[in-house]
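Usage example:
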Amino acid sequence: MFDMAGIVVEVAQALLALALAPALVGFIRWMKARLQNRRGAPIWQPYAELRKLFRKDMVVSRHASWIFRVAPYVILGSTIVVSLLVPVLVTPLPFNAVADLFAVVYLLLLGTVFLALAGLDPGSAFGGMGSSREMTVAAISEPAIALAILSLALAAGSTNLGEIAARTIARPSSALSPGHILAFVALFIVMLAETGRLPVDNPATHLELTMIHEAMILEYSGPYLAMVEWASWLKLFVFLTLAGNLFVPWGLATSLTPAALAIAFAATVAKLVVLAAAVAVLETRVAKLRLFRVPELLAVSFVLGLLAVASSFSLR
Amino acid sequence: MEGLFSQVAALGSSGVLLCGLILLWRRGVGAYITAFTWQSAVLAALTAAVGYFGADRQLYVVAVLLFLIKAVAIPRLLRRVAQRFTAGREPAAYVNTGTSLVVSGLLVLLAYAAARPLEAISDMPTRAGMPLAMGLLFVSLFVIISRRMAITQVIGFLMLENAIALLAVLATYGVPLIVEVGVFLDVLMGFLVMQIFLYDIHDTFSTTDVDVLKRLKH
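Running the assembly step on the lines above writes:
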């Protein structure tokens, strides 16, 4: 399995994730705009934003330390590593040996921690507020993700992501089990919290006092901002892929033939479109929660994850 | 076929349980009534599915009755009651949302433990849903004791009844039709009596917050 072709596909799939992430965000924005009766920016608008930001100069606060400069690389890097581990197109991959549930969860957390540190570093009050909120959210959402995926792992008998997807393909009926459904709902809620989507954080504005993600990156500009933004889009992409390919893994290629890869590509894009549309509809329907109610929402997700684990455990 | 049946049963029961958990998270009597309506509809669908897979015609009748009474009639009555005397929002429960969610999670785990022997002796394809039904039973009891408004407690009671119906359908493919009809009548009558009580409580104390009902008036 550790042949050249596998590694090429692996890297290609990570690059594909990196390339498609802005389009995914653009699609969600466009869909939201249509639902709200606006014309909306075209889907490729985020690419234009990235290009603009990469060309701009940077302004870095005099009080910022090396953490502020390192953080964008760590955030983008850790997210890219995660996208190497998640089954985007093919399921048994060369890096599968390390594509562990816990590795993925904590690599994502690494990016979150550095983002929070970067928010604190320049010493602006607003960034600090964002960081403290982000840590509050992360502290509750991280175990909820782990629980949600753990229930799948229990059903599959392995914490390996590729293995989980492969087992579900082999036993289609398990996708309808209560553990699966509860875990999917749990993961979806956590996904909204982790990627700063609407009931938890508002991705569309810089000007709300209760914002989380935008508050932390307020001090960033130019290429650094582009990297941080791109990383957060990639994170959304990774989460939606996880939700799509772990819970509904059909269409994933199990071999490296071009036909299988083409089908896998089409299937992944279709799943992403469906999930992105769900996010857009949800964001149009719900209002942002009060910050104090966010832990309650995450508690819902945690309890659902717990129930999912309990039912997977009893059904084993 | 067997496999599909047990999947559908487990799926339906988790849907019913999920609707029960919404009660703990949402606020406002309107949202509770919506959750109850959905729960009853899912329960009716599940009953019909059990009737289909178990080849039991009577269950179709039960499903239709269940839908008409619990997903149409009672929610309508509940909404009328709610409109009459709730000023929108419910006062906070005795237990805050986060804690009550965790408590209900633990209750469902307890139900899994409690239903173990039940699952062990049963060889029905529906047995996977039994712990969930029992969990809903515990959760609705918890709703009844932890909420302050009489109307929410009534909804908790109705959910408890749903849980028992669910357990009956899963454990025995439903009790005989005549018993089922009797139960429906009981639920409806019970609900009407409670409604009269609610009106009375509201007329006497001008609130349905049970915290205020500690002393006797008159």
